Amino acid sequence: MGTETAVDGTTAVETSSSSSTANSIKAFIAGGFGGVCAVLVGHPFDLTKTRLQTAAPGTYTGALDVVKKTLARDGVKGMYRGMVPPLLGVTPIFAVSFWAYDLGKNLVYTFTPKRDAPALSTTEVTAAGFFSAIPTTLITAPVERAKVVLQVQGQGGAGKQYSGVLDVFKGLYKEGGVRSIFRGTTATLARDAPGSAAYFAAYEVAKKQLTPKGKEPGDLDLGAIVVAGGLAGVAMWSIAIPPDVLKSRIQSAPQGTYSGFADCARKTIASDGIGALWKGFVPAMARAFPANAATFVGVEFSRKALDKLF
Description:
- The protein has a single domain, classed as Mitochondrial carrier domain (Mitochondrial carrier fold).
- It has nine helices and no strands.
- It is mainly alpha-helical.
- The radius of gyration is 21 Å and the shape is globular.
- The longest helix has about 55 residues, at about 1-55.
- It is a multi-pass membrane protein.
């Protein structure tokens, strides 16, 4: 009997481990697919936000002025300038984010073995979301750096300096090595850790609220996923704008302009006032709903397809 129990226990552990690995792989792939959907829908909004955040005072009168001037100068393709870095980087970024979120949930279960209920509480989901930003930042920071540099090219009549993403990384490395490529990492983490906590928590809460009585959250239709995903994006960006402004300024400024995150905050407020920390709020919030609705539609439907495969 003792031997049989040991074998059965080992089998259970192996089965649980196999299931956990499969879920991690699915979370990784689905997250990457969702990220591609987000970039295709949201990049014009993101470009508008970044240009508002980094332009000299008086360059633009608002978000619509950014769009008008960009279209006049570069046409529709100008609204997609700088899209290659996030499109190339978004698969690993979102893949790692959703994988890390899945890992964060597993860590919660590991540290709470004697649970009253299997479902995670909102606080536990928030903690898992916060954790997801830590490994993701290692990929997000350099991709965001290249994206911002490309997005602000030509702003204020400046000439074109880089021909593409590889040229950006080559130039940044010449400028200051790996450190230059990863400039803005602290600001990225300051934006994404609380932002991701709000992001995943809002999505799970919205899903529960939208689930009809007698149904499971996994059975939601397309419309409900769109609403829950959009609200998740709004929740994230409602708190992420100030650190995002500082991140954009740090990553777009000439080398030596700021000594760090706190120095950028101090100089930004001193020169442009506290209101500068909310520059780009309108395009960010305009992007938040459709881009993140697209993200979770991509994630949910690709995850269901993967569940049928393995």
